[in-house]
């Protein structure tokens, strides 16, 4: 087991600014490979979209996102982890460093909960100019039932030294970003990590984790954007100084430009989305809806509190949506409203407010990495007198 | 139960050229919404890529593609099918029309087999000019273990009238394409449908079908491109004239231009792909490999026969790959070869030949819809003296 000091040293050597290569003229390693653009999309963005796939918005009709439809972010390749040889190693500023096999973890009391995760970059491609990275539109959000053991239970076993300030979570995935090779590593302040519902999850929707979701073990941090929920977890280290790895110090920041140190991305901003009504056109995805009473359905969530209300805007006129029962503290909340659809083209909007008083902005707040864009969804819909097999578009 | 004549009538009314709307000046409904382009990618293509996701190429290391990593094509929205109310209806030119519940089907003798499916559009975005539709690069291929009952067993129960020429398979998914609303429907000649290993599958990799893969029942047609394996199957009709639905007559054709009637896409052309060695760069996906002996691994498949050989090209020099054991008749075949990687940039190619004598072309064969591009993969790789955490790109 490395000592905590050696680990801190190794992490700053690996990914910190003092030793990192400089991929650009700037002194700051860049998480994004190019400057924001107003142009069309490049092949790299298409490849990222096809790997790190979205949840198709019609899946908002499902309370729990089925396996394989949960949105996905993998910075690099999916690692093949041998679950027999695998151990979770806990070290650094702890009282008793320890290792746990998967069987060790499964033998402990388990906890299950529905958790809505959202990628911090969800909505990035709607910004102008567009930050060039994973080109999310709206679908970087999903809700699964996660099962595992509370992180706090394991940390109670190893104990934390009083000078520990953060826990650093390391994944088995590695690759290059910002010009330097590193493993995916993120930290949480001790208080956030061990108070509450942070989970070491080994099941998703009642099945062992799939390889792409972090098999055999991942962190699930309810209320935080997905970058905090480290996958393929194999090491937790308590550290006595703030972690400065690449994915913490340079990626996932709210910056105004490349040299702005910015603020870290943390909790999920309040947001709502609508399942497209009617049936879509293959290429444009525009929903085509028959005239008459149409039930609009969607989900809303916030990392800052419970959802208090959802408003639906029909061509600029606001209607209150009806909220489903709240489903635990960490899962999205369903909503619905009936729309009397009249022939023609319409714009549908949904806008949520949480009980901390946060409300979605009508326009995106631009930032350099394209993070945490929670502006309202605007859905352009065509209503025809009727829609059945053989109906032609006007 | 509709009569066979009425069904044929309804299908040509629905989607045939005589009654279809004309979305363009041409008399031919267009499966693609725009002409081929040499430009960058539009938002619609990015959205399609994020819905209809690829199998990331490192998953070639898995013999069976895990749930959720299998490539996905959904022309429209994923339908929510109630498995209790659902029935498979078999009618048209059969002796005894019949309906089957899911329990009826599960009570019959089951069959399992590994089947490699590939989207007919796989490789589309590598064509110049690029047909504008689902923008596949390489990842539209996967292999799952499918379980269900042979179609021939069910057709033996209903019987086929001697004048039946095709079976038409109808899915529960519907939407607009080519300007007209229709359900997804495809036919197979009777001989192809009832002789051999065509499966009505209700399980994938030992689990009930996931919603996006066709729950509760789908067709699996080994050796054919994926468009034949109709999902969310709810009706099979025997017909006495060739089926002329939109997805048969206009989509999935090898055309030279929009007005060329073209040839139908059928079986999967011979192809091989390589799992990227080393570790990737996040944005460019370029593999970075340490110098020395590197095992290259991949898979190869063909709908026309078994794989006979795979050659690996290193900077234009060909080496024979070693083939894994053949895994059934319908699953891809693994291959590997050891590459002595030397510092610098290299181009890696793989090229398969099947036992019917088909070999992959070195350059794509262009066609208007971007179908069946089985040209060799060309992988640009950077070799560094060593690669470990902290290694900087040159």
Could you describe the 3D structure shown?
The structure is a homodimer of 394-residue chains. Chain A is mainly beta and 394 residues long. The first copy, chain A, has 2 domains: 4-264, Oxidoreductase, molybdopterin-binding domain (Sulfite Oxidase, Chain A, domain 2); 271-384, Immunoglobulin-like, CATH 2.60.40.650. Helices cover 11% and strands 34% of the residues of chain A. Chain A has helices at 4-15, 43-51, 102-106, 151-158, 190-194, 246-249; strands at residues 88-92, 98-100, 111-118, 141-150, 166-177, 180-189, 199-204, 207-208, 218-220, 233-239, 253-254, 263-264, 271-274, 279-280, 287-290, 292-301, 307-314, 317-320, 322-323, 333-341, 344-354, 377-384. In chain A, the strands form 5 sheets. Chain A has a 6-stranded mixed beta sheet with strand order 14-15-22-21-17-18, with no helix packed on it. Chain A has a 5-stranded mixed beta sheet with strand order 2-1-10-5-6. In chain A, strands 3, 4, 7, 8 and 9 form a 5-stranded antiparallel beta sheet that branches. In chain A, a hairpin with a 5-residue loop joins β1 and β2 (98-100). Chain A is globular. Mean pLDDT of chain A is 93; it is low at 1-26.
């Amino acid at each position: 087991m490395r000592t905590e000091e050696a680990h801190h040293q190794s992490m700053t050597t690996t990914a910190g600014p003092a030793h990192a290569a400089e991929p650009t003229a700037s002194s700051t390693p860049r998480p994004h490979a190019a400057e924001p653009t107003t142009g069309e999309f490049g092949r790299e963005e298409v490849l990222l979209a096809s790997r790190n796939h979205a949840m198709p918005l019609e899946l908002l009709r499902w309370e729990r996102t089925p396996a394989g439809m949960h949105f996905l972010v993998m910075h690099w390749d999916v690692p093949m982890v041998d679950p027999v040889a695998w151990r979770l190693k806990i070290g650094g500023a702890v009282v008793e460093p320890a290792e746990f096999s998967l069987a060790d973890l499964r033998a402990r009391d388990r906890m299950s909960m529905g958790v809505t995760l959202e990628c911090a970059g969800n909505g990035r491609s709607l910004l102008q100019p567009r930050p060039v990275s994973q080109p999310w539109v709206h679908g970087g959000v999903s809700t699964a039932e996660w099962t595992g053991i509370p992180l706090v239970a394991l940390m109670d076993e190893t104990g934390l030294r009083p000078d520990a300030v953060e826990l650093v979570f390391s994944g088995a995935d590695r690759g290059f970003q910002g010009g330097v090779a590193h493993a995916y590593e993120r930290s949480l302040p001790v208080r956030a990590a061990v108070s509450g519902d942070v989970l070491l999850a080994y099941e998703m929707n009642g099945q062992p984790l799939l390889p792409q979701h972090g098999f055999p073990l991942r962190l699930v941090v309810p209320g935080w954007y997905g970058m905090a929920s480290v996958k393929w977890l194999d090491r937790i280290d308590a550290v006595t100084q703030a972690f400065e790895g690449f994915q913490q110090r340079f990626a996932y920041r709210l910056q105004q430009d490349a040299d702005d140190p910015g603020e870290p991305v943390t909790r999920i901003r309040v947001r709502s989305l609508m399942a497209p009504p009617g049936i879509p056109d293959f290429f444009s995805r525009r929903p085509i809806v028959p005239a008459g009473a149409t039930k609009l359905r969607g989900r809303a969530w916030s990392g800052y509190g419970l959802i208090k209300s959802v408003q639906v805007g029909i061509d600029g006129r606001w209607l209150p949506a009806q909220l489903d029962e709240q489903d635990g503290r960490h899962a999205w909340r369903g909503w619905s409203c009936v729309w009397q659809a009249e022939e023609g083209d319409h714009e549908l909007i949904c806008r949520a407010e949480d009980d901390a008083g946060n409300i979605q902005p009508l326009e995106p707040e631009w930032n350099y990495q394209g993070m945490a864009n929670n502006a309202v969804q605007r859905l352009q819909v065509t209503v025809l007198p009727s829609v059945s097999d053989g109906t032609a578009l006007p």
